[in-house]
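re: that complex we talked abt at group meeting.

here r the seqs, copy pasted straight from the sheet so there may be weird spacing, ignore it
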Amino acid sequence: MPRNALYAQSGGVTAVINASAQGVIEAARAAPDRIGKLFAARDGIVGVLAEELVDTGAESVETVAALRHTPGGAFGSCRYKLGSLEKHRAHYERLIEVFRAHDIGIFFYNGGGDSADTCLKVGRISQQLGYPLQAIHIPKTMDNDLPHTDCCPGFGSVAKYTAVSIREAGVDLASMARTSTQVFILEVMGRHAGWTAAAGGLAAESVGDAPQLILFPEVAFDEARFLAAVAHNVRHYGHCAMVVSEGLRTAGGEFLAEAGGRDAFGHAQLGGVAPLLADKIKAALRCKVHYAQSDYLMRSARHVASKVDLDQAYAVGRAAVEIAAQGRGGVMVSIVRTADQPYAWSLAEVALTEVANVERKMPSEFIREDGFHITAACRKYLLPLIEGEEPPPFRNGLPQFARLKLQAVPARTGKTFDWQSGT
Amino acid sequence: MPRNALYAQSGGVTAVINASAQGVIEAARAAPDRIGKLFAARDGIVGVLAEELVDTGAESVETVAALRHTPGGAFGSCRYKLGSLEKHRAHYERLIEVFRAHDIGIFFYNGGGDSADTCLKVGRISQQLGYPLQAIHIPKTMDNDLPHTDCCPGFGSVAKYTAVSIREAGVDLASMARTSTQVFILEVMGRHAGWTAAAGGLAAESVGDAPQLILFPEVAFDEARFLAAVAHNVRHYGHCAMVVSEGLRTAGGEFLAEAGGRDAFGHAQLGGVAPLLADKIKAALRCKVHYAQSDYLMRSARHVASKVDLDQAYAVGRAAVEIAAQGRGGVMVSIVRTADQPYAWSLAEVALTEVANVERKMPSEFIREDGFHITAACRKYLLPLIEGEEPPPFRNGLPQFARLKLQAVPARTGKTFDWQSGT
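got the structure back, here u go
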């Protein structure tokens, strides 16, 4: 009898993480001689600790296929990072206890950098405890910061959302600028790297196209230079549309949104970086400014997801099962770019020791010398990732998502575990 | 020789106003015996005053067809309201002067309530001055506040954007709620009426679906009741996703966003109503809150426009030309609902005297008794308006928009006119 497998989702979800789930489930069903039951954990690793597993076998073929067009995390995700094996020994041992109780020999963890680290440590503790386990990491993060992979599933769709949105808002702005709004700011997620903001730059195909400016977390905010650049664009084109990373920082490295001051009650100023910039522009240039903060909308916007991203998300899920079926573990599935134009890619695997706790940064040669836009090299890298459309089915004017049964697997450990206290 | 016509766009633009422009241009081209040249004004009425006209005849058939999938205002729009005939007599006379110089006998004004008023007054001054003019108003406003029409072109697409966005963000939120964000707020435009916020309610098809709450400008904000409702949803479903109108007001009628306090420098608090609500929720419920402010993104989101809205926008443009060709004026084209399910509609015309300065409010029976959601009657009204999809063509992963020649028509009045000073 083949051993069972467990799939769990981790960290901030994306528009395409469920396509990876679909890939895992479909590939596991196609290999019944190698993979036993495929369980999924509710809410990521937290659901394993709490022994809250569901049987993916209860989901119909149609429901599994519908995962491809369902954003969010269909099984629930979590923001919960396990620390060192010493610090969280009880947690790691509990994981093995749950695996053992359900004869789980394969662990698929679908997440970003933190979950790669967890995946690595779960593999180590299983060795220490003499419990055979194949731990395989399936990459996912809109932050695009996993190393040794061309890109991270989830990022391409956020990139596409950003570029589409600023292109659309840019033409709106241009048509209003003479008598109304002259500056529009789109604030995007991405605290530590400018990947998402950079993607907005793809919308600027011709001179004068939106966005005229991009503000990256990698470039220290210089108010005078910024205001001069806005003023230049307003003078030159009549308007200025920009994409701004929420992670914009001062020269001292402080987040601008936090440096922005406190209200009369001493609370840190609310509302992110866009309203702060809007205020500065209004005060200096005396023009009308609008801004949008897309927040979760951007990472859940399945309706405008990138087909390349979907294909990659699905493929890395399937590949993880193939690796498992071949008896390997301790790796992350990675994407290898084999050609730019047309984009071609294949899959490979990287040892988790190479991935865990390594953050991929945006190369400095991707940022234009003046710090306000992307370079041709950046465009060449990013463009393939937003290519293709595959909208979800719509009914009554709205996208239709999978509704899962999430059939609970009866607990077998006979113990409860409080994941917050570790007891 | 038939007389020439002029088309101008007015007020905040939408994802589909250019479909009306397409309708006007295509219908005018098909009636060369009734309509001479079709000019368009740059930036709405301001471009007429400045005698900045373009010849739509210079645009190719393909470019005109591409207007259907181009958001923003292709000819430019304006926020500029002409006052009474007495107050702005010089402006009105200047309009007639420009019309006369270019033998313009038909004026198509594509906008909301203010432009209907302008259209009416331009018709009146032409009579006073003995200059024959057919002034025809083509409805457009995302605010859905024009009277005597089933809906306003531009609204259906904003409604669809809102419902799609909260559905997507709602599943994202649900998957994170156990260990991370439990409340998500989507702030939407619409200062004076809750139409857009109401449209978010369409996403809630089953019990527990997002949005769990809607806050309307029509319902005075009651902090205690609001926090209790959020807490109830978090307890019951584990999370709470809501759509909030930017026009939310206190019981005293003050905008909440403006009542929210001032910072240390005495500036009104920035950032709209969402951050204010987020702060209140965090303080009271001690949970993590995220929010998005979609602003211009929602009204420019052509990529997810409603096909019904597109069809209506196009049709009202064509109908305006037919009315003109039949020699009439002083009217707005209106949409008449003839059936709900399936939705059927026809076009009619309403005297501008019935339209100007009348604001259509959202009926109170569209708001659920507790003030936090929509009723079945509201759903019945709104649902048809978001139906159907017609995405723009994409290339390189991005939507493609029309790029117009905007070929200038040589000035003929021999005079300049400063529209700001009226001299």
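couple things i noticed - Residues 4-142+302-357+393-399 of chain A form a domain with the Rossmann fold fold (CATH 3.40.50.450). Chain A has a mean pLDDT of 95.
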